[in-house]
Amino acid sequence: VSALKDVISLKFKTIQSDGILLHREGQNGDHMTLELLKGKLSLLINLGDDKTHSSEAQINITLGSLLDDQHWHSVLIEHFNNQVNFTPRSTGFSTGQSLASSLTLLAISFIRKLLNSIIDFSSLSKLSFGGIPVPGKSGTLSHRNFHGCFENIYYNGVNIIDLARRHKSQISFVGNMSFLCLEPQVIPVTFLSSRSYLALPGTSGQDEVSIIFQFRTWNKEGLLLSSKVHQASGGFLLYLSDGKVKMRLHKPGKALSDITA
C-alpha cells in the first residue's frame, strides 16, 4: 500500500529475549525491521544499496529493556513523508511492583525518536510479523523468529489478526500458530514477609549439590539461598546486594570470600 502516512501498532508478550517482531521489505533494497535483541527493542531502517552516503544508509535505534518478562508491551511506529516516530509503551503493571521500576519503564513511553532520512516509504510493500520471509536478506540481524503472543496488530487501522483469523487471501501463514495466547506453566511461590522462607533437609556425604531456580523481585536487597555453616565443610550465602547477585563462601580456616555475578 502506498500512503503519505503509515501507522503500525502492535502488542507483544514473550519470555524469549530475541526474535523478529516486524519486517517490511522494499523493491530497491530498502527495508525496516523491528526485533527483540537481548530483551531490548531494536528498530533498523536500511535505505538500500543505491544510496550514495554510507552514513545515511542505515539507521538503528534501541529502546527499552527487560521486555521479555511475559508482560504485554505496546509498540507504535508512525512514518509520514521522511519522518519516523518510534514509541514503545510498557503495560501490565500490578500494584505490587515498585514505583521506581514502574517509572523507569513508563518513561520509555515518552521517548520519541524523530528521524530525518531519505527513505522512500511508499516503496516498502511486503509486510511480515514474527519473522522474515527470506532469511539472510537483511544483513547482520539475528533472524530469530518471534516465539510468543501478538495482540492488536493494526496497519493503518486495519486489524491484521482479524484478517488472518478469517483466512483472507492477502494474508499468508508460515509455521505453527494459533489464535490463543497460552501462559507458560509456572508454579510460583511468593514470600509475603521478611520472616517467610522455605527450608529443605540436607543430605550429608554428598560431593556435589545442584540448585536451580528463577526469581523476580523489585527489591535490591535480600537473601536468596543459604546453607548452614558446618565446622568441616563450611557453607555459603546467595543474596542480592544493590541489585546484584552475590555469593559469600565460608570455608574452615579461610577468610570470607565474596563473588559477584
List keywords for this structure.
261 residues; mainly beta; 6-stranded antiparallel β-sheet; 5-stranded antiparallel β-sheet; 15 strands; elongated
Whole-angstrom Rg: 24 Å
Query: Portion of residues in helices?
Result: under 10%
How does the overall form come out from the CA principal axes? elongated
* CATH topology call of the largest domain: Jelly Rolls
Structure description:
- The chain is mainly beta.
- The protein folds into two domains: 5-166, Sandwich (Jelly Rolls); 185-260, no CATH class.
- The protein contains two helices and 15 strands.
- The chain has helices at 99-106, 160-165, and strands at 5-13, 19-26, 31-37, 40-46, 58-63, 73-80, 83-90, 113-116, 124-129, 149-155, 158-159, 222-226, 235-241, 244-250, 257-260.
- The protein has a six-stranded antiparallel β-sheet.
- It is elongated and about 75 Å long.
- The chain starts with a strand and ends with a strand.
- This is CNTP4 protein.
- Residues 1-181 form the Laminin G domain.
- Pfam families: Laminin_G_2.
